[in-house]
Amino acid sequence: MAAEAIVAPVPYAHVNGGRLWYEEHGAGDPVVFLHAGLLDSRQWTRQLETFAPHYRAIALDARGFGRSDRPTEPYRRHEDVLGLLDALGIERAALVGNSVGGMAAVDATLARPDRVRTLVAVGAAISGLSFRAYSDEQGARAEAAWDDGDYRGAADVWLEVWAPVSTDDDLREIAYANAAVDTDDFELDGSPPAVDRLGELRLPTLVLVGDREVEGIVDTCRRIAADVPGARLQVMAGADHLPNRARPDEFDRLVLEFLAQP
Q1: Are the CB atoms for 165 and 240 separated by under 8 Å?
Q2: H-helix or E-strand containing 88?
Q3: Rounded distance, CA 189 to CA 197, Å?
C-alpha cells in the first residue's frame, strides 16, 4: 500500500472572528508586509525571498482578499494586523504597508505604538483623508464594467490608474483574482482617523512614493513625512503606486538599509 502524502498545514490565523491567510519565510525580527487594494499577499512574493535571509518576513491577505475569509461582520483592517501579531506570538514588528495596507500600518501604529518598532509607508493612504484618483472617463468605465459584472474590466481600469509602470501578466492575474471583492459594507475606517494624529507617531518612519504616482497619494505621502517627527521621504524615480513591483531592486535596497539602522 502506497504511503499517504504528508500535507503541510495551511497557514491560517484565526483573527477577530475570521481566518486570515499569511505566508512567512526566514527568521529573526519580524517584518509584516501589507498589500495594496485589489491585490493580495502575492504582491510581496519577491520581498518574502529577499528579506528572509535577514528577517522573519510575513505577508498577509487582508480580509476578503486572496485566501482570507470574506467578511461577515464589521471589522477594521488595522485591528486584523494587530490580531495577526497576537496569533503569531509577535510582540513587536516592522510594518511595511502599501496603499490601503499603508493606511492599516499607520492606524495599527497609532492604536498600539508598543507593537510596532519601524514603519515603512509605501504610496500610503491615511484614514480621514480622501482624494479623487480616477478621471470622469475612467470612473465611468470602471462603474459600467462593475455594473455589467465585468469585474476584470473594472480591474483593468484600476491597473491603468494605479499601476501603469508595474503591470505585467503576474500582477494582472493577482488583480483579476481579487476583482470581484467588495468589502465596503463591512470595512470600517480607523477611529479616530489618522490624518490629524500623525504627530503622535514616535518611531523610525520611511515614506516611499513613486514619481509616477497618483497626485493624491503624492500629497498624502508628503503630509505623512511632514507631520511624523523625524520621518524620511524618498521619491523613487520611474515607480508608480507599487514601487516594490516597478523598481524591486531599489525598493529592497532602500527598505533593507532603513530597517538595518540602529
Answers
A1: yes
A2: none
A3: 14
Q: Which residues pair with 250 in a beta bridge?
A: none
Instruction: Tell me the C-alpha distance between 208 and 86, whole Å.
Output: 27
CA-CA distance, 40 to 170, in Å (whole number)? Answer: 12
What's the chain's Rg over C-alpha atoms?
A: 18
Residue written as grid cell 511624523: 228
Phi, psi dihedral angles at 33 (to 5 degrees): -100, 130
Say if strands 12-15 and 18-25 run parallel, antiparallel, or are unpaired.
antiparallel
Angle of helix 77-87 relative to helix 100-111, nearest 10 degrees, comes to: 70
HSE-up (13 A, CA, CB side) for residue 59: 22
Is residue 232 within 8 A of residue 201, CB to CB? The reply is no
Is 125 in contact with 111 (CB distance < 8 Å)? no
Query: Residues, the chain, total?
Result: 262
For 73-108, how does the pLDDT look when each residue is reduced to its tens digit (9 = 90+)?
999 999 999 999 999 999 999 999 999 999 999 999
DSSP designation for 164: T
pTM above 0.90, yes or no: yes
**Bridge partner list, 98:** 122
- Cα 42–45–51 angle (5° rounding)? 140
**Contact (CB, 8 A) for 208 and 258:** no
